[in-house]
Every structure is written in C-alpha cells, then in structure tokens.
Amino acid sequence: MNAEILDQVLLPLADQFEAGNPHRYSFKPGHVTEYEGLRECMAELVAEGSVLRNSAGLFQFSQGGYAKYLPRIKALRTLKSSTPAK
User: Whole-prediction pTM value?
Assistant: First the structure.
C-alpha cells in the first residue's frame, strides 16, 4: 500500500468516523496519474476490512479499521499541527 496515499485518505475517513457522521466519503485523485494508486489503496483497505464500501463507491471506516489506524491518524494530526502553513 502506498503510504503517501494512505496518509491522504486516513484523515478524512477519521474525521467522518469521529463525528459520528453516517455519510460515507468519496475520493477523487488530484491528477489522472494518481487514480491507480488511490484505487489500489482503497481496495486494500476494503479487503482487509478496515474500510466499508457501498454500492455507490463511497467509503467509511469500520470500527476495527479506525482502531487499527488510530495511532497513525494521531501521528498525522500531530505532524500536521506542527508543520508551519505555507
């Protein structure tokens, strides 16, 4: 799994999960060359049971997936808050 892409999808999924939002999240690559990596990352998350996907192609964390990635999510948030704005 591509770590850079994983990091980009974890925070929005976590935000939705923590808010108790029943809605699912969709992801769109920023550039056409990123499509395959994003698709592979999301497929791996779904296959491992960390993310649930509905028939419309929208995603949300499973309870287990959130717990599994919570340490990484916390690290990403810490890094994000300590990085100066550009």
Answer: 0.83
